Q: What sequence folds into this?
């Protein structure tokens, strides 16, 4: 079984968290957790940046001397 790329999963999670935050049932809750939707969004943003940085090819300059 092939798994989706981690970056794709993170992007999907970001979308889902945004949808949860906008959902009227969520907004109607009197819910005050220690960690918030914003905390989850921030954590996923940091993870996405880390993944994108690690996917960028390294540039190696060789001397032609």
A:
């Amino acid at each position: 079984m092939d798994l989706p790329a981690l970056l794709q999963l993170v992007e999907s999670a970001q979308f889902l968290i945004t949808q949860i935050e906008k959902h009227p049932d969520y907004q109607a809750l009197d819910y005050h957790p220690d960690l918030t939707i914003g905390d989850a969004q921030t954590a996923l943003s940091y993870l996405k940046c880390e993944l994108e940085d690690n996917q960028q090819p390294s540039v190696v300059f060789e001397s032609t001397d």
Summary: The mean pLDDT is 89. The helical segments are 6-22, 24-28, 37-55. The first helix runs from residue 6 to 22.
